Amino acid sequence: MDKKRLKHTVNKAKEESTMEKKKNDKSKSIHDILPLDLIHRILLRVPIRHLARLRCVSKLWCSLISDPDFAESHLHLSLAPTHPCLLIHLRDSTEAFLVHLEEVFNGDNYQVKEVSFPFKKKPPSKFCVMGSCRGFVLLNRQPYFFVVWNPLTGFRKRISYSCLVHRSKLRRLNFSRDARLYGFGYDASRDDYLVVVASQDGDCQHLDCLSLRTNSWINLDAALPESLGYMKRQSPGLFLNGSIHWLSYSLQEHYNESLLIFDLKERSFSEISLPEQLIMHGPATIVILGGCLALYYQDYAVEFKTRIWVMKEYKVNSSWTLYEIPCLKFHPLYLSNGSDIMALDPTPISGPLKFAKYNIREELLQHFTCPHLQQDAYFFASCTVYTESLLLLPSDI
């Protein structure tokens, strides 16, 4: 937070604190013991799940925690950012659950929290999770609207994309089937969240970008490369370092070629080469592990292993590093504590849901059964990990 904004927030909080103190002069509060600036710095490092309760301490604390600039600073300065796993029911998409995987592997005190989706009416089965960014999850509900949702705060915003449907002369636009690519990200230069959609209309390709700050669509057909190649189906783009990333491949050769990048600031495409030593016998999937791009695939032909290539330095091809997991069914979700790859283990087709953890330093593989979620009763259509935040969209501040 810059000094001017911090001073304004602190002064406002001091005024409210003074008024509160006048009502009860006999009481001695924590504000009489600790400087307000120090309280502010401490709160910035408190785990986000405890901040909601701390709002109730006083009007002063509520004012500090509710400030939009505080939410932005907390996202970057929190010592313990949380990454819950959002699991969505396949047969009944009105049901979803949040699980904090760090807690799952740290003991029996973990919680499985059921959450409700931000729809006024019951959503159709198989609605699409399009991605996540800075605490927001982007949902697509047919026939033609998005919902931007912050599961922590309950904030939601509905946006129509009927203009894309009408242009393509389709009754509806099924993103997992009809869109060539799609993604959700944040443009820091404009303080704007963007939804990017490339679609095919006959022989014509279109690229459209939705600005959530202005609630308007921007046509960017001119930015499209001559050919987008082929995208992995049902795989939304991943947001990292101001860009959205997709895995493209050659349909003729059946192997992956490169990572396609769309820079949200420059509104332009580029590519990242895959590892030269990469040899695959099946499809790959991209994921973000510890702030790094990674791709993984199952090796059925040679060894029953899951191979994960991690790009340790962004856009540095020589930094690709290989990790081999001695487990065929290992779907990595994120990197915890700098060395633990948390994953979903889809091996059992019935019984309790299973998670896995692989320590890349000690080469130790662990499994954990989650009895609260039965695989036969809860077969999940989507498993999404996101970073929790208190942020609001720029147009709603």
Entry keywords:
397 residues, five-stranded antiparallel beta sheet, four-stranded antiparallel beta sheet, globular
Structure report:
It is a single chain. The protein has 397 residues and is α+β, with helices and mostly antiparallel strands. It has helices at 3-23, 36-44, 48-54, 59-66, 68-77, 101-104, 162-168, 175-178; strands spanning 85-89, 96-99, 112-115, 128-133, 136-141, 145-149, 156-160, 179-187, 192-201, 204-211, 216-219, 230-231, 238-240, 243-250, 255-263, 268-273, 285-289, 292-299, 305-311, 320-325, 331-336, 340-345, 352-359, 364-374, 380-385. The chain has 8 helices and 25 strands. The strands form 6 sheets. Strands 12, 13, 14, 15 and 16 form a 5-stranded antiparallel beta sheet that branches. Helix 1 (3-23) runs antiparallel to helix 4. The longest helix has 21 residues, at 3-23. The protein is globular and about 70 Å long. The chain starts with a helix and ends in a 12-residue tail after the last strand. The model has no long low-confidence stretch (mean pLDDT 80).
